[in-house]
Amino acid sequence: MKTQDNNISSPLTDNDIRLMMQKLPSGPRNPWLVKKVMNRLPEPLPTRHSWPVRLAYLLAAIILFAGWVFIAINIMSPATIAVTYSDIIYTFILISMTIALPLSYQNS
Q1: How many CB atoms within 10 Å of residue 93?
Q2: I need a surface site. Which of 11, 92, 93, 97 has the fewest CB within 10 A?
């Protein structure tokens, strides 16, 4: 009998395929093969950022610093009676941006 797979006929029978599979040489198992291949790969090149990307991150850092100065002056001023919700919201935004800015620069 001829095997049929997806309406494509094969000149080999099931017995022929079984015999070929039995006669195949088995290669030696080498657990270090992947490590050897990985050691031959070149080291990844460090990413170089273009000047517009560097300028954008520099501007973001300057704006972030200015935001912290603004919040510090606003909260520490003698006219401030109580800390408002907007001060708390601005502070949380600045904290998240302070954490996210270096992480995004490293991952880009």
Answers
A1: 13
A2: 11
b/e 45-78 (16+ beta carbons within 10 angstroms → b): eeeeeeeeeeeebeeeeeebeebbeebeebeeee
Return the residue matching tokens 């170089």: 48
Q: How far apart are CA 48 and CA 69, in angstroms?
A: 31
Q: How far is CA 14 from CA 11, 19, 23, 26, 51, in A?
A: 10, 9, 14, 21, 64
Query: How would DSSP label each residue in 57-93?
Result: HHHHHHHHHHHHHHHHHHHHSTT--S--HHHHHHHHH
Highest mean pLDDT among 7-21, 43-57, 84-98: 84-98
- Position 84, amino acid: T
Specify the amino acid at residue 59: L
Q: Which two tokens stand for residue 1?
A: 């009998």
Q: Flag whether the pTM goes above 0.70.
A: no
Q: Which residue has the tokens 């273009």?
A: 50
